[in-house]
Amino acid sequence: MVIYGGISAEREISIISSKEIIKSLRSLNYEVIDIDADPSLLKEINYHKPNVIFNALHGTWGEDGEVQKILEASKVPYTHSGIESSQIAMDKFKSGKIFKRHNFSHPRSLLCSLTDLIGSNPMNYPYVIKPNNNGSSVGVVMINSELEKNDYIKKSISGRTCSEESEKLLIQEFIDGPEIQVAIYGNGKSDSIEIVPKNKFYDYESKYFDNGATQHIIPPRLDNKKIDEVNELGLKAHKILKCRGISRSDFILDKETGNFFILEINTQPGMTPTSLVPEIAKYHGISFDSLIDWIIKDASINR
Hints:
The protein has helices at residues 11-27, 41-48, 66-74, 83-90, 92-101, 146-158, 162-165, 204-208, 224-240, 276-283, 288-301, and strands spanning 2-4, 34-36, 54-55, 109-113, 127-131, 141-143, 168-173, 179-185, 189-196, 215-217, 246-253, 260-266. It is an alpha+beta fold.
C-alpha cells in the first residue's frame, strides 16, 4: 500500500512522489494499492490488509509522528522512521538542541510568534524565518532588512487566522556558504551532493519548480577529507535520532569557520524527478527502482 496526498501544505509534492513510487513498484512486479490518506487510514489498512506500507506522505500528518501512530496500530511494516524519530526530526528547534548536545555546529535559533516580530528584531540581519514543523522549505524566507521583515509580517497576517498568528516560527541566523545535502541508506551508507540554488537559498521553488536552474553537483566541490567529514556527520545525525530507512540531512559549510552547520534532518525525503536522494543514489550506481525495492525490503525486515 502506498499512502500519499494527505492534509499538509506538502500534499502536492507527496502526490508527485507517489506517482514515481507507484510506477516503480509496479515495474518491480509488486501488487500496489494506492490510498490518498486521511484520518480514516486505519480502516483502509484493515480492509486491504497490505504486506507493507510505503509512506509517501510529506509534512505534518505524514512525517511528524502522527501517521506513524496509525501505522504502528495497524501492525503492518512501514517505510521510513518511527514515531519518536519522526516527531523529533520534524520539530526543527527540538532536533537542533539535540544536535548541539552532540557537538554539531547549528545556527543560533529561537522560537517566536508572528505578532512577536512586530516592532522588534529577534537577531541581527540577515536571518531566516521558517515554520518549525514543515518540510520541503515550505514558508521559508530570508530577511535582510526592516523593510523585508515588515513586508513578510504584512503578507503573513493577511493570510492567517488569529490563532495562526500565535503559532511558533523558527528564527535562525543565516550561515553563508555552500549547501551540502547528505543522503543516508540504512545505518551504514552515506553520500552527498552540493546545491547551488537559483534563489538565495534552496527554497521550495528551487527544490521542485525551477526547471533545472538550480545546480546539483556530485560529488560536492570539496576536498575528499571534507566530503568524508560531512558524510559522517549525516550518518551521525541519522543514528542520533534513531532514524530508519533513508534520510537526508541539510548542511551549510560556513565560509568563515570552515565548519559544517546542520540545519535539519528529513526522515522522508522526496521521490520526485528532481529529488536529491534518488539523484545521489543514481550517481553511485543505484537505480530508482533498486532504491525503491531496497526501501520496501528494509521496511519488511526491520519492523
